[in-house]
Hints:
By secondary structure, the chain is α/β, with parallel strands linked by helices. The protein contains 16 helices and 6 strands.
Amino acid sequence: xxxxxIINLIKYYTExxxxxxxxxxxxxxxxxxxxxxxxxxxYIMSLLSDVNTxxxxxxxxxxxxxxxxxxxxxxxxxxELITGDIKGMINAINHKxxxxxxxxxxxxxxxxxxxxxxxxxxxxxxxxxxxxxELVDSKLGQTAKNIVSxxxxxxxxxxxxNYVILLDEFxxxxxxxxxxxxxxxxxxxxxxxxxxxxxxxxxxxxxxTTNMYNKFDxxxxxxxxxxxxxxxxxxxxxxxxxxxxxxxxLSLFSNxxxxxxxxxxxxxxxxxxxxxxxxxxxxKTSLGFSNPNSEYDYLTRxxxxxKGDVKKYALTELYDLGFTVREIETxxxxxxxxxxxxxxxx
Length: 346
């Protein structure tokens, strides 16, 4: 809790501003609750629990550029390095030390947007997404005006500490101002963003995502409190994450059986394992289109995503790929005895 909270509390009391006084008191209660003093938080809330107490309610967002996103409770497996940064980020926000602007940078499918949804859920805040592509306008100067307009809307939110703002695909409106290949209009847009970030309400948490971080203006990067790199997946991280994704979906399919060892072997056949976003789609498709009368058909379909149709492979080729006789039976439907016999003949 900052000194500003106490000063505001006294200020609103002397001004007889009941609405702002009680809102500030709620913020103080939330602070104590977040830092383990639930008893004091509950006591403050009880003092404010009379019938005339104002309780901040969720409001409808009426904006041309912002929309509310639904939060997710699905598991979001991330490497330890990224998880550690996210925990540190949440800790900094909860302690209100003036860190409220972040960049998530990384390749498509690395989990940037899904992580923002999880952060909003953990902070117990609403998530508002800005459609950055809709800010861009062909009329001279209009893009900059749209940027000013949307930041005005953000700063006028009645309860800023209730929101996380997502600037997805931030590079749409924020590129290097001195890049000769860039349009002069986008240079103006970037300059406008610099000014708007400087005046952003510090109660708002703003997260920008991009897969073109290396093209960002250095002055723009300095306006953010931290940059989190989402490209830090090792091969083993991706295999572990694929297993977590599989387990989350297998529970929905009563006809499918689990064979984690075979599953991991198939994923490991990738020369370059896809990032989680693509892995999720591949695994979901393999399960969704699998034969309900075949317990392991999803593994055969998964193999086809990675290496092509299993029927095109000789049994000895499958064996050379590291599969056991039993696993070859699972993938091909050919009995173990026949697999063994044909391999001996070869």
